[in-house]
Design brief:
It is built from eight helices and 16 strands. By secondary structure, it is an alpha/beta fold. A ten-stranded mixed β-sheet has the order 5-4-1-8-9-12-13-14-15-16, with helices on both faces.
Length: 296
């Protein structure tokens, strides 16, 4: 089984919408780890949490087979805690507390997924890691975030230039700002100049576009009854890496990513990824998605 190391804060998320409110573990390190583990990869999580982090969340990761020996508890710190509010098609983040920074320079694995959520990873270390490791995927969401005086998250533009980066996984909102472009075609052209071999642009209900070695594919979103979209992009990334390492097929890995993302949005939080039937259902949905992939 391939080994995937995922670095970024495990979070406490308070998710609020007009239909429900709940508290749950979150962060790229949660959703991507459980998705990759579901598909059979060995997964290490590198994170920092505070003493307030519920022990049952760590036990859930451990029971799922995720290695959490790289999760350190800071006795003088609180965990990274977000309030996430959904209203119509808008999503707002408010940062209530934040754990300490992470060092990533010595990470190992068949692939490394960097998923900062609150600027806990250093840009220089990302560049150094990408130079010496063959497969580093970056989700830059947490590097692009700043807070206002009330803790609400705003996005800032970054100059991301990592010539040796293997993969960039980014949302449409972040891509629009990073590329300084509104159209998808222009976004892709500018993001491809960053230098990543694999570019994954997730588009929510519109699916995703994956660019790989001068080839682009449009990956549809499997139609699902959405209850909680939190973590869907992270799940896509985790499932994609796990499947790509196993098969080497970008299109099939993207289909698996889309299918896994459709599973997690159907219920609140990450719990659908723990269902006994989840792996089989992801495979079934991926076969449908795969047949609908278009070259663009």
């Amino acid at each position: 089984m391939p080994l995937i190391t995922i670095a970024g804060h495990l979070t406490i998320d308070e998710v609020v919408s007009k239909d429900f409110s709940h508290r749950c573990m979150g962060g790229v390190s949660c959703y991507a780890a459980l998705a990759a583990r579901l598909l059979g990869a060995e997964v290490n999580v590198i994170s920092k949490i505070g003493v307030d982090f519920p022990k049952e969340y760590l036990q859930l990761l451990r029971s799922a087979g995720v290695n959490i020996s790289g999760v350190s508890i800071e006795p003088e710190s609180k965990s990274t805690f977000f309030q996430i509010t959904y209203f119509d098609d808008e999503r707002r983040f408010r940062l209530l507390s934040r754990a300490g920074d992470l060092s990533i320079i010595d990470l190992e694995g068949d692939a490394i997924y960097l998923g900062p959520v609150a600027w806990e990873i250093n840009l220089d270390e990302i560049g150094e890691l990408a130079k010496k490791h063959e497969r580093v995927m970056l989700d830059p969401q947490g590097l692009m975030r700043i807070t206002d005086e009330n803790g609400f998250i705003l996005l800032k533009r970054l100059d991301l230039k990592f010539p040796k980066l293997w993969s960039l996984r980014i949302s449409k909102e972040e891509a629009r700002l990073l590329a300084q472009a509104s159209g998808v075609e222009e976004m892709l052209n500018r993001l491809e100049s960053i230098g990543a071999e694999v570019l994954i642009l997730t588009l929510g209900k519109d699916g995703a576009i994956v660019s790989h070695r001068e080839k682009r594919i449009k990956v549809p979103c499997f139609e699902a009854l959405e209850k909680d979209p939190t973590g869907a992009g992270d799940v896509f990334g985790g499932a994609f890496i796990a499947e790509y390492l196993d098969s080497g097929d970008v299109e099939w890995a993207a289909a698996m990513g889309s299918a896994a993302a459709s599973i997690v949005v159907e219920e609140r939080g990450f719990y659908p990824l723990l269902a006994r039937s989840a792996k089989k259902e992801v495979g079934r949905r991926a076969e449908i998605v795969y047949e609908l992939i278009e070259k663009i």
